[in-house]
Design brief:
methyltransferase activity; about 45% helix; SAM-dependent_MTases_sf; Rossmann fold; transferase; alpha/beta
Amino acid sequence: MTFIQRSYQPELLDAPDIPFADIKRNMQELNTINTLLGGHAITVKGIAQLIGNLKEIHVCEIGCGGGDNLIAINNYCQQHHIKVHFAGIDIKQACIDFAATKTALQFNTDWIVSDYELVYFDSKPDIIFSSLFCHHFTDEQLITQLQWMQANSKLGFFINDLQRNSIAYYAIKAITSLFSKSYLVKNDAPLSVLRGFTKQEWIRLFAKAGFRTFSISWQWAFRYLIIYQH
């Protein structure tokens, strides 16, 4: 097993014909993993830094899946008396259908089934973010994605994604083999690590996208939080 270069082996979740029941179990287990290993806490950290002292914001997530990141942000905003409106974009209808059932998001969220690149905003969101989304793309596609997030956000954007690391790979492989009941999670969780990034790779991607100022910080467990502010 080599960790020198990113893997481009496709994840099972990226296939177009997965039964909804399998997608639902996958999203439920990923939410549990994100909660227990601090993934949602990293997302909230990114939001908190970009919000500053604002008391009303418009937040968009690309690759929103089951909407659990938005719920974590919604909880944070309620605790801090911040009025928030969401847009959740995902290319899979099944993911949007599942996300739209979440009670916390039924009155303040616009759901969009689309490739994020094809979405046009009448009013740009203040903040755009992604969580565990970037590793699904090639480096070339990511350069375009970074530029899109910059062009379509008012305040900035942030990314929460995986560090490619041998400890992270073998740990998540062991955890999912023991506790997961989803064939998608068992296959894709360790593969996601192999498709993840080093800090230097992120620095090179941002440079190629034309960005000079951004912050990148390592987060537990084996993730990076990258923040760009206008």
